[in-house]
Amino acid sequence: MCLGWAQEPAPEPNWLKNPGFEAPAARVHEVVGWQTQAGAWHSMASEDAPEGERMLAWQSGQLARTRQVLQRRFAQPQWVELRAMVRGSGPGELRLAARALGKPGVQRAVRLVAPSEGWEPISLVLAVPAGTDRLDVELIASGPFELDQLRLAESSKEQLQAVSAAAEVQSLSDEIFASAPGLEREQLLVDWAVHPEAHAILLGSGFDQTTAELGAEFDRELWRAMGRVQSPQLLKEPPQALVQPRTEADALALERVAREYPLRAVYAKLLAPQLQRGALPAAQDAAMRVLADAGDARFFAAFESVYLGAALERRAALLDAAASIRDTQALETLAKRVRSARGLERELAERAFLHAARSASDLEGRAWLLDTGLAHRDSYVRRASLLALGQELEPVEISAILRLTRDSDPEVLRTLIPVLAAHPSDASSRALQDLVGHRRPEVAADALRGLWAQRSGDSGVRSFARGVIVGEGQWAVQQAAIELLARDERNLPPQRLRQLAVSSADWRVARAATRVLIARGEQAPEGARTAPEQGQTLVVIALDREAIAAGDPTAVAPWLQLREWLTQDALQAKLWLAGVPPQAWRESGFASGAERLTAFDRWFAERPVPVGIGSMGGLREALRKACAEQDGVELVLAIDADLRDGELEDWLDLAADFRRWNAHQQLKLRVLTAPDGGRLSLALSEFAAD
Question: pTM (2 decimals)?
Fold first, then answer.
């Protein structure tokens, strides 16, 4: 007797990679063998998968799209079949698309699938002409679908017979409507999705938009494939969608094609038309990105016209693109934008200029920073140029930056001080000593610390610091000197510290002296001042009286908040009215909140200037003066959030100034505005008091 085993049937051929989605993925939303183009297709474990342990699932929330591309050459025409097991659990639609690409052109087939609670087999048949060298399979879901057991292979004999029989029908229209009398048009579309021409029959002049969009996408893929081999035919007679893109998808296709060719080959026909007035914004951006990546000077020739017609988001991208080009033209262009921009746009321009300046490492770039950047009219350009030059400077470059010691902007000086400290010389030491006498406290204090670091705290600089303390100079310099001499009892004896802790003119100096005494193991002297006196409150009102009278909620809400806030007991406030010069501040101290409120209403009604954001320059000066007050000042802004054209940028500028002025203070800004203050509340929220 002969024992043997039954031979297992050979597995069906399948050209797809990972057709059952069993291969584990390294990242979330990644499906091995498939390219996720949009949405959240992902391979997930399932106990009821038709085959294996995993299946492909759609995560709800957005359109999901994935594809697989197969390189396969067909010498003879052939029919291929795509099969799958599909299940849907909610409203939506699934499209299975297959296309054959090659020299003959594009052949495609689409199957629209409605959701079904159980697993159902579906299939579509694609006619592949001879000369095809690529097959694409795409899955597009707009609802909760699950797929498994995909198979792409040569069509079976039975399927070929069915297709042949259908081809013998003289009228496809008759065949469609005879196949299932009484069915709704939508169901017929699903049943006959394998025949794209059926859509025209069923929809008449309203040809199926989905099929049209897929066809346009197939065309774009074909252009890109021609670009990858740098086909001269594509540039000889470029498609109209590349010369004059009408959609963002066309613009993206233009960019992808242009990147495949040398710039000289595509500029005149594909890129130059996009830089003209009236071109699609997405196409303009695509052309500018191609020029920027190539570092081409024509980017800057077109920059101004494209930039001025762009919204803020596009401007940010253009600034970043300019910053990526290592050329002095980039520095010139971005410096110009820094000087002319306002608000958030200025912050974007500043960031881009700093990036470009730090990338300018060649001799020509450093020469621009030294000669033009350090002498620029805009203080940020000067400061960023100094930052970009770094602390590794040649002696000749050190002499060039010494002229910045006379700069009028304190932020430039504070940037300069560490650079001088890192390069010891008689000239830099003299410059730092001169800056210790600067009128701005933070600059003077930084200069003293820089001088100490440069000379490693030698006896000369210790004597200098002691003289600063004895001389009763600015509070920030005295505080810095006390901290630097904290361990030097000879130059800063205990009796001097106790004297400063009690009788110093500024409480911050007294606090520094007290802390040093405690650190040395001594008790704080009686009467030492370690906290500020009672702070003042500055109220800045920028409300429209007419809007309040008309009941406009954007004005009434902050108005009511302000009146409620003014009723607090023991409130000492300075009131300033936007639109009236700061000299018109008026002290108002009252015995009770009710008296204060009555007096305020009378005062507000008597103002000769209409209340509103009438003088942004005056308001800026008010904020500057508030920041010059001692610690403990609280600033209150009562603001109408209904901004007019250009006013948001003004407020963003104001917020940026407040950030700089308040760098060494503990001032608080209270914003009283409507519950939904919009963009203005967002701009000022970082300064709001707790």
Answer: 0.54
At 180-237, the pLDDT tens digits run 455 555 555 555 544 445 545 554 433 344 445 555 666 777 777 778 878 887 888 8
Q: What is the pLDDT of residue 576?
A: 47
| Both structure tokens of 177 | 């409507």
Distance CA 432, CA 425 (A): 11
Angle at CA 43, nearest 5°, toward 39 and 45?
135
List the one residue out of 226, 222, 242, 246 whose CA is nearest residue 234.
226
Half-sphere exposure of 32 (CA within 13 A, CB side): 13
Burial 278-295 (b: 16+ CB within 10 A, else e): ebbebbbbbbbbbbbbbe
User: What domains can you pick out in the chain, each with its CATH number?
Assistant: 35-210 (2.60.120.260), 537-687 (3.40.50)
- Is the backbone of residue 61 left (phi > 0), alpha (psi -120 to 50) or beta? left
The answer to whether the beta carbons of residues 642 and 552 sit under 8 Å apart is yes
User: Could you report the per-residue pLDDT of 383-401, keeping only the tens digit for each?
Assistant: 999 999 876 788 778 888 8
Cα angle, residue 101 at apex, residues 65 and 58 outer, rounded to 5°: 10
Q: Quote the DSSP letter at residue 578.
A: T
Helices 379-389 and 410-421: crossing angle, nearest 10°?
A: 20
- Provide the residue type at 262 as one letter: P
Buried b (16+ CB within 10 A) or exposed e, 675-690: eebeebbebbeebeee
Interior CA angle at 618 toward 577 and 601, to 5°? Answer: 0
Q: How many residues appear in the chain?
A: 690
Separation CA 30–CA 657 (nearest Å) = 46
Q: What are the tens digits of pLDDT across the range 325-374?
A: 999 999 999 999 999 988 778 888 999 999 999 998 888 999 999 999 99
Are residues 84 and 16 in contact, defined by beta-carbon separation less than 8 angstroms?
Answer: no
Q: Give the tens place of pLDDT for each residue, 536-547.
A: 455 556 666 677
Q: Which two tokens stand for residue 69?
A: 């591309």
